[in-house]
Amino acid sequence: MNSDFKAGIKLQNPREAQKREELLYKIISQKDSTLEQQINEALKHTTRLLGLEVGIISKINGSAYTVEYCYTQDQSLSPGQQFTLGETYCDITLRQYEPLAISHMADSEWNMHPCYDVFELESYIGTKVYLNGELFGTLNFSSSEPKEGGFIPEDKNLIKLLAEWLGGVLKRKQIEAELQESKKLYELVAKNSADLICLHEPDGTYKFVSPSVTRILGYTPEELIGTYPYALFHPEDRKLVEEQSHKPAIKEGKQTGSLHYRIRKKNGNYIWFDTSTEVITNDAGEVIHLQTVSRNITDRKRVEMLFSQAQEMANVGGWEYEIESERLLWTDEVYHIHEVPVGTELCVEDGLSFFPGEARKILENNIERVIKTGDSYDLELPFVTNKGNRRWIRAIGQAEFIDGKAYRLRGTFQDITLQKNYELNIKEQNEKLRKLTDNRDKLYSIIAHDLKGSFYGINGLLQLINKEVGEITDDEDILKKLTLAESSSRGTYELLENLLNWIRIQKDDIDPEFSLFNLANEIQKTLQLSTVSIQKKELKIDSDLPEKCMIRADQNMIATVLRNLLSNAIKFSEAGETIHVSLQEKSDIVKISIKDNGIGMSEKVKEKLFDPTDRPKRSGTSNEKGTGLGMLLIADMLKAHNGEIEVCSEEGKGSEFIVYLPKND
Questions:
Q1: How many domains does the chain have?
Q2: Structural domain for 223, as ranges
Q3: What's the predicted TM-score (pTM) here?
Q4: Residues contacting 642, CB < 8 A, separation 6+
Q5: For the segment 62-77, what is each residue's pLDDT rounded down to a tens digit?
Q6: Are residues 314 and 357 in the same domain?
Q7: Who contacts 10 (Cβ-Cβ below 8 Å, separation ≥6)?
Q8: Where do transmembrane segments lie in this chain (predicted)?
C-alpha cells in the first residue's frame, strides 16, 4: 500500500484502523475495473463499513449541489440530482478545515440546519474533495439513524484519505477523456492523409512502396524496394514485429493490425508506426505476399507518454522540443500554467518570453549546457503568465542523443507558486521570531545586571548581619534562621548564575577563556566555599588531591562545573555521610571524581540527566529544591573544553560523577 495512505491511519484504535487500512488497500488496488466502477465500489464498501445508509460524491458549483456518484440501500438517489447547497450538511463541511463528523444531529449545534428539517438525517461524516488544487465538491456519508457508538478518529482519517485518492481518480478520468478526444482527432487526420502502403515478399523484402514514403520516412520508393525492413526497425522492437506480426502472417496466414513499433527515418531519427498486415495467398493457400498499411503515430505516442507523466504527477505538465525542426509540443497542463489557450502554436522564443530578465538568462544557459553536456537541469524560476500573473515554476529538462548529438529536449513544467508563498510565510515568521528573540535577550540582560546585582548585595548583607548578630547574642533560634536565610539566598544566587550561564552558552554568546591554573587549588576552593552546606548536614569530606595539577582551561567554567557537582553530592547525601573527592593526572588528561553514598538514581533518571527537554527535577534529602539545570550547564561547559563526564549510580546506594578534561598544558 502507498506509504502516504498508511501514514494517514493513526493507530488510536488498532483493530478499527486495520479494517480501514484493508478497505483502502482494496479500493486503491482495483486494477481490472473502470474508473467509474472503482469509484462506485469505493462508495459502496465505505458506506457499509461506516454502518450508514448513503454515500455521495458531490460536485459543487456556486450554490448548486449535484450528485455525481452515489450509493444508497434503497436507491432513493441517482447521479445528476441537484439540491441547493445551503440545504445540505455539506454546506457545513465546506466551512471546516478537517473532516466533519456528526454522530447525532439532534444533539449537535447544527440541529437547526435546513437539511435536518428537510431530510431528517441524524448522522453525517464528510470532507472536501479537490481536483487540480481547486474545490471539486464533497465526499460524504449519512444515515437517518444516529451513529451507534459515534464516529471514531479512524473514520475521519479514512474519508480524508479517500478524498485524496478520489481527487487522483478524478484527475485520471479527466486525462483519459482528454486523451480519448486526442485519439479521435488523430484518427480523423489519419483518414484524410496518405498512409504508407507497401507490398512485401514473404520474407519481408520490399516489393512495392507508395510515394508517401518520401514525406513520411525521407526515402524514395526506389531506395527501399529490394531491401529488408528489419534493418530499419528499432533494435528493441525487432523481436516484437517478428513475433506479433511477421510469424503469425507467414505460419498461420493470420492478418494482424495495429502493431506499434519504431522505425528509422533517412535522417537517423526514429518515429512510431502503427502498422496493419494483410496476407495475400495463391489458390493453394500459400502466402505469396504481405501487404502493410502504416501510419505515423509519433505525435500520438508522445502525447500519450506526456499524458502518462502528467497522470503520475498532479499539476505537472510535460513538454518536448525537436531541435532540428524547432517544433515545440506542450501538454494541456503547460498551456494552463502559461494561461495560453490549449493548442496555440508557439515557438521556443515564445516560451522563453514568459521568463523575466535574469530568469530567462538562467534558463537559456541551462538549455545550452544540457545540449552540450547531456546533463539535466532542475530550476525554480519566476514566471509571468500570458495574462500578466506572476508565478513561480519548477522547470526540469533533459536531452536525447543520437550518435552523440542532441536531437530532442523533453521535460516537465510545474507551478510551485503555492510552495513559494509558504516559504515567504516562513521567512515572515522567522523575522517575528527574531524580534521575539531580541526582546528575550533584553530581558536576560536586565536579569543578569539588575537582579543578579541585587542578590549579590543581599548575600553580602546577610553575611554581615549573621556575623554581627553572632557577636551580640547566643540565641540559637535567631542564628539558625539567619543561617537559613543566608543559605537560601546563596542557593538562589547560584541558581540564577547557572541559568544565565546556560542561556549564554545556548546563544553561543560565551567562549572559554583558557588560562593555566592549579586545578587542585580550585577544588580546595570549591570545598571551602561549600563549608556551610557541608556542616549543616554534618557531612564528612574525604579528599585525595595532589598539591599541584596544572591545566589550561577556563577557570570560571571549571569552577562552575565543580560547584554544581559538589552541590549535587551534598544535596542528595543523608546527614553524617561521607563525600569522596579525588583528582588524578593521566598523561594528557585529568580525572576528577566526586562520589557520595546518598540516594542515587534510577536508570530512568540517568537517561534523562542531560536531556534539556525532559530534565529530572528532584529534591534533596533535606528537601532542597532542584531544577536539573546544573547538569545541563555541566555538559555544555565540558563540551566547550572537549571534556567528558561519566555517571555511575545505583538507586539507594549513591552516585559517582567522573569528569575527564584535557590538560592542554
A1: 5
A2: 193-296
A3: 0.35
A4: 662
A5: 999 999 999 998 878 8
A6: yes
A7: 17, 153, 154, 157
A8: none
